[in-house]
Amino acid sequence: MSQAADAPARVAVIDDDRAIRFVLSRALAQPDLAVECFGEAEEALEALLACPPEVVVTDIRMPGIDGLALMARLHQTHPALPVIVMTAHSNLDSAVASYQGGAFEYLPKPFDVDDALALVRRAVAHVREQARPAVVPENLNDDIIGESPAMQDVFRAIGRLSQSHISVLLRGASGTGKERIARALHQHSPRAERPFIALNMAAIPRDLVESELFGHEKGAFTGATARRAGRFEQADGGTLLLDEIGDMPADTQTRLLRVLADGEFFRVGGHMPVKVDVRIIAATHQHLETLVEDGRFREDLFHRLNVIAIALPSLTQRWEDIPRLARHFLHAAASELETETKVLTAEVEALLGRLAWPGNVRQLENLCRWLTVMASGREVLLEDLPDELRTVDADAAPANGDWRTALRDWAAQTLAADDDQTLEQALPDVEEILMTAALEHTGGRKGEAAALLGWGRNTLTRKLKASRPDG
Ligand SMILES: Nc1ncnc2c1ncn2[C@@H]1O[C@H](COP(=O)(O)OP(=O)(O)OP(=O)(O)O)[C@@H](O)[C@H]1O
Q1: What residues contact residue 185 under an 8 Å CB cut-off, 6+ apart?
Q2: C-alpha 94 to ligand 1 mean position (Å)
Q3: pLDDT digits over 38-67, tens only?
């Protein structure tokens, strides 16, 4: 299955419907793909087991062996083979059954041929990335804190991508460390010796975005008194982080798409193309799919950037890391302010683990700076915390709705009843509820559901399997 990164990827299509085979074989007739079609699963199995493709696209309901059984049989010997499951009977059950069977993605019929093509390419990129050794780069844990399972997933993704030049989309709420992770991706890439340039789309006035990105020639506009290199040129050979990509103006999106396709652009007011070799990392806290639906973000650009997406967990999803992060930030703040390092009492640490943290890691960092200045003694006590944090705990007012209080009461009652078995089942139950809601919301699209939950898709697949073992 592992093939040279530039060889066309073999894609097998299995469907008893001749029309679908025809449409897909046309759509997938691309220079980077080699398509083979089969009208029934038996025949396909024999051929594919003898010579496995890189991606399989299969219908579910077919005479003889059905698509899910075909997938199971292929996965026995080729567990990493991505299988895209198509079905006209699109409902949550078939989506869930496909994912539980280990499908890469689920494609409800009728589908848009461009979507099908994008999905196949995503599966190819995925399988080729998976073929790389999944090591967590050395030193990564030294400068980015993350022992929680959620952050370990992120580190593994950085490891897998460490030999790659592929575009990456970082998704995550504000303050979750997207810029930090973008730097780590750069530092652990073959481009580490070349520049890392970050540009925040939300922070530049709209009419300056193009000249900021692509530079300008002398006299291109009033005030352009000299030629100026843009960020693309500055990042040549290295990495360009386009932060808050969802705020990029429409015209610039079109230009960016062209640069990504051609590797060259014109400075504002220029007539000579400038050639660059830049790896793009895009970051967003917005749900880009919604921006696409609303016509505010180009769908083709979205697919181009979204080949590899890494979802950064919110701070509450990695509460295990809070004490270490706090110690790290207290230490950093003390060196910065040339004062002694404060220490949290166990009570304060426990409280920090229970807060909602809407501002994520950055909010914790700011709190640590504040405490370094404001706390009176070396030990930080509950009363040293800013009022708004203490009140949150004092009346247990849930930041995001009433369910936290309900859960807290339920846990207290369960423990009082000596029923510790029930407590153990609570987390999987909560996850199951959230997974079902997310899958329902996305019409069964696992990648998007995983993003909504702040997980990688592998995490969602694993948890789905664990929560519904006989599915
Ligand atoms: N895992 C981590 N370990 C140590 N420091 C971290 C970690 N994650 C984030 N930080 C620190 O938290 C702060 C916020 O991170 P960063 O600026 O990367 O977030 P962001 O997601 O890009 O935020 P925004 O979307 O608001 O721009 C930074 O000072 C960063 O160094």
Answers
A1: 158, 161, 168, 239, 281
A2: 39
A3: 999 999 999 998 888 999 999 988 888 899
